[in-house]
Design brief:
Blueprint: E1 19-21, H1 25-28, H2 39-51, H3 59-67, H4 69-76, H5 82-96, H6 98-101, H7 110-122, H8 132-144, H9 150-176, H10 182-192, H11 195-205, H12 212-215, H13 218-246, H14 252-260, H15 264-286, H16 294-320, H17 329-335, E2 337-339
Antiparallel strand pairs: 1-2
Helix pairs in contact: 2-4, 2-5, 4-5, 4-16, 5-8, 5-11, 7-8, 7-9, 9-10, 9-11, 13-15, 13-16, 14-15
EC number: 4.2.3.-
Cofactor: Mg(2+)
Family: Belongs to the terpene synthase family.
Amino acid sequence: MSASLSTPRSSTSVTAPKKIVLPDLVSHCTFDLGINRHRKQITTETKKWLFKGDNLVGKKRDAYHGLKCGLLTSMCYPTAGCPQLRVCNDFLTYLFHLDNLSDDMDNRGTRTTADVVLNSLYHPHARHAPARVGKMTRDYYKRMVLTASPGAQQRFIETFDFFFQSVTQQAIDRASGAIPDLESYIALRRDTSGCKPCWALIEYANNLDIPDDVMDHPIIRSLGEAANDLVTWSNDIFSYNVEQSKGDTHNMIPVVMHHEGVDLQSAVDFVGNMCKQSIDRFVEDRSHLPSWGAEIDRQVAIYVGGLADWIVGSLHWSFESERYFGKSGRQVKASRVVELLPRRA
């Protein structure tokens, strides 16, 4: 990594830090922010879809409303038609609530959930779907395949499979208390983020049919990776406070602190610099796109624009959602100061 760590501060301090200062990622990202005009409609429809036959009450229902997933979807797919935007919003909402949706399964382990979900994707028209998560998977995927290109369908399933493999490893690490080294963490986090299936949804949402060899080009892959890194690493910064209060160490900040021997603010600054470098890398790669002919170039430009929408949309949404900063998101966005929560018992 080219980001430089500051000199480790003394670890003999008696008092733990009470706040952190976030990096200014919003100002570093100069991409245009858009919001899809179908936001209100798909938000209402997805809410009915998610709550159908469910017992999402109390804190779970409040968490859904505070999440503001419809806003995230509308920022990340700003030009999608209403049916496509609805599928994207159903998927993102379902992804955030996957734990809740698998409550009715005999085994809540990630492997069991993965089996149900992937079986539903490979056999969307099969009748047997005992678990609610399987029924919901079939429901949104049957709508997706109506217009998604074969390549987008394949990439969606393959990358969702990678997601489940990586969250299984994450669960193993969490249970053992193991903290991976930075390179191993980055490799795993690129799949646990769930971004890769969302990149396939960029193709679907914009009715693209880009050949496999173009999608496999090193520049296209690098652009997707840079966008994934920005979304994922910035999320680790924004979610750190809530996660540290739970004792969760599967986050880049404690990984950097543990393996590099730096204090909390130095680790936040380091990860923030990595985020800025990922934006810079995206801009640089975008300026070196090769040409595949007029029609393919047109579709590639839309796809790459969709990655940029995800970068800028996820940054702004993180302060609008209540998931990371409660109802203080806009205040935190302005001041960049986060008061640390106490560790839960």
